[in-house]
Input
Amino acid sequence: MPAGIDFRRYRKVRRFVARTFVQVFWWDVILNAPGLRRFRRPPLVRYQGIARRYRALAAEMGGVLIKLGQFLSTRVDILPPEITSELAGLQDEVPPEPFADIVRQIEEDFGRPAAAVFAWIGPDAVGAASLAQVHPARLPTGEEVVVKVLRPGIDVLVETDLAAVRLATRLLRFSKTIRRRVDLGRLGTEITNTTLAELDLIAEGHNAERFAENFAGDARVYLPKVFWDWTARRTLTLENVAWIKIADLAALDRAGIRRSEVARTLYRIYLQQIFEHSFVHADPHPGNLFVRPLPVDGEAPFPTGAPVPPAPAGGEERPFQIVFVDFGMVAVIPERLRGALREYAIALGTRDAERIVRSYVSAGVLLPGADLRRLEEIHEELFQRFWGVRIGDLRATAFSEAEYFFRQYRDVLYELPFQMQVDLLFASRAVGLLAGLSTQLDPEFDPWAETLPFAQRLAAQELRRNWREILSGGLAQLQILLGLPRRADAVLARAERGTLTIQAALTPEEKKIIRRLERSVHRLSWTVVAAGMLLAGVMVHAQAPGRPWGWWLAAAGALAFLWGALTKT
Output
């Protein structure tokens, strides 16, 4: 085990991971076997209990555990309220470190007293997160700033939690299904690298400046200025941009800012980050986003920390800007996936199921042998049944349609022919947080209506960029058409000579049916063996009740049954 581990903390987290793994294995693997399902407890009750225990553990331990719980608590778009409500308190359960420890951290970072670095620093934290906390301050030059300081000892806590993450990935290797779909080694590396990067505040400052360059001149976005002379590896000094918190719905309403417009603007900004910039702010939880109210009708600009301005007279809507903070967690989409993502966005906006499947192939997210025709069919159905559904109704609609899709596309859902691209892990996390936040801002928000114009613009750009490729492709198709008569003549000639052969192969769907039959025969065989051993054990026990042989045969029969139920051919 690496140095710098808090062994007491690690053992506590390890116990939770092991207990959860055993519980899931028992209820969702062993008792999911045919004939045993009637003994299962309702999954919602079980996972609610896991969420409750996780919240207690995270609130006690802090660190990375808090971040994971906060992420899950925002997924109101897909997780039932019984789960998210258990984790919601983690948004507020991060107590600040004592101010004296923060001052000591600053002094170690700069090598001189904090009073020589800042003209003033407030003792009360204005924000306390799992890895760092923020204090108001004033520079010797007079600017009002905020100072983000890593929590003392956070290196040990993070390394301990990452050791627990590595344990979890090792346990997941026992599942052949997960191993086949996720590169667990790369997954662990990606989580480790991204989390450790959050502990380098100089790198975070550079991320903020890159983000500002990407949105230079965009009136929708406001980014804080980085004060480099007052920044070190564990201390980051930024312009104070604490306007209205994006989750403060009452304050937005008082200021006359339309919440639906905030959701729409935020969604558009993220479309641009993912599909155009390939550089994504991957932690858009409510604590990292503010709304800056803008003046109207000759009003003076509103300074940070000022009371929420009243709504403009006459029912006019107040303009605003989205303000981003905390650039420690960013996702850089690799070059090999950018074209596939643009293809996916265009296909999604134009409801092109065939193009969506092509984008999956380009991105490498499909397992070998996936039935592309069936995937196109299920995406056509998804478009027909979910297009235009508001994001607030998405989960309820999905549950109501689940029975139909399971019945109609049982083969696809059973095989689940997707493999996870680890490069997109934190971009996907950002999308998940964004979906939950958009639901809170505006339950009526329609993501499809916002995606369509963006996809059309991407398609127009693609057409202008690739007109030479389109022209050369057209010429190639023309050459193929001109060569068709010659090829047809060759095929007919081979047929006349009796040398024409036709090669047939099973379709992917037929292969899946045969595999399912093989598994059924495999399980039936082991069930017969188990029943025979059990009967033999009963007979032996009846003949010789004092001998253990009958019990041994019965136990062997039970093991044979479990082996047949849980293993695959």
The two ends are 36 Å apart (CA to CA). The mean pLDDT is 79. The first strand starts at residue 120 and ends at 121. The CA atoms of residues 387 and 555 lie 54 Å apart.
